[in-house]
Amino acid sequence: MTTRREPTARQVRLGAELRKLRDAAGLAARAAAALLGVSHVQISHIESGLSGVSEERLRQLAANYSCADDQLIEALVALATDRTRGWWEEYRGVLPSAYQDLAELEHHATFRRDVAVLHVPGLFQTEAYAQALFAYMNPEFPAREVERRVEHRMRRKVIIEGPDAIPYETVIHEAALRIKVAGRAASQAQLTRILEMSQAPHVTVRVIPFTLDDFPGAGSTMVYLGGAIARLDTVVRDAPHGTAFLDSEAQLRHFRELFLRVKESALPPEKSRDLICRMAKEL
Fold it and tell me: Helices in 1-142 by DSSP H: which ranges?
């Protein structure tokens, strides 16, 4: 099987999960390879996402690792055999790979949860808002580079606006709603956009108001994407030098609990809409 030069985040995740199963079984890579009748290098390539794995071979690995979790095995088979090449492939080699990885993860997600403190969540951003944001953060970029990033962000909205929209729950701090990223008129349009989306049955918007007496969670910004099963969830966070995809059991547990704490601090959806509506009228 051909070795990949740059595996996607989903391919890396599949390999990582297979390694977790091997480690849980107490097998070294050479021992696992011997049971499968292949080179230990091939096991290494599979676990690093550099090589794919067939359904038959994946099930054989799971059996060798004494994995009895049928739901997990089926979810891993789906990861291994899915050959979807979505719209994001148009940007491969044009934008950083993290852009394609995020769009692909969103395409396969069963739900999404966001916490946004300083900026409006990407899925809610209008074109004018995203344009101002990308241009300010990347002043060295020519106009076409900014346009590509804005275009990519606008197309990602399909997961909450398209025919197969997934449940979307977001908590936004009032600071993110009041910062005029692109001027008064654009800010009003941005608030109107959030109000419109908050009416959708699959979308829930909550706001953390400035009037809250105590909110130490300013650093809790996150994107949480639901997998086919909870073990395959993914947390996406912006890091100083790129995008970080977090998926260890401890990390997922931490961010699930963190989201619940932030959510409990926010206004309920109806009061959140009222606050956003008042802000829009004040502009």
Answer: 9-25, 29-36, 40-47, 55-64, 70-81, 97-108, 127-137
Q: Do the strands 234-239 and 168-173 form a parallel or antiparallel pair, or are they unpaired?
A: unpaired
Q: Which residues face 222 on adjacent strands?
A: 115
- Amino acid type, 227: G
Tell me how far apart the alpha carbons of residues 118 and 185 are, in angstroms, rounded to a whole number.
19
- Counting Cα atoms < 13 Å in the Cβ hemisphere of 96 gives 9
Which residues are CB-neighbours of 23 under 8 A, at least 6 positions away?
none
Q: How far apart are CA 114 and CA 121, in angstroms?
A: 7
Nearest residue to 95 (alpha-carbon basis) of 156, 155, 146: 146
pLDDT given at position 41 = 95
Taking the C-alpha atoms of residue 73 and residue 55, their distance in angstroms, rounded to an integer, is 10
pLDDT for residue 271 is more than 60: yes
pLDDT of residue 1 exceeding 60: no
Q: Which two tokens stand for residue 8?
A: 């996607």
- In angstroms, the Cα distances linking 50 to 20, 40, 79, 90 are 17, 14, 14, 22
**Model-level pTM?**
0.94
pLDDT the model gives residue 10: 94
**DSSP letter, residue 3:** P
- Both tokens of 243, joined, read 């995008």
pLDDT, position 5: 82
What is the model's pLDDT at position 278? 96
Pairing of strands 222-225, 234-239: antiparallel
Phi/psi at 212 (nearest 5 deg)?
Answer: -65, 130
Tens-digit pLDDT profile for residues 239-266: 767 789 999 999 999 999 999 999 999 9
DSSP helix, strand, coil percent of the chain (3-state; round to 5):
55, 10, 35
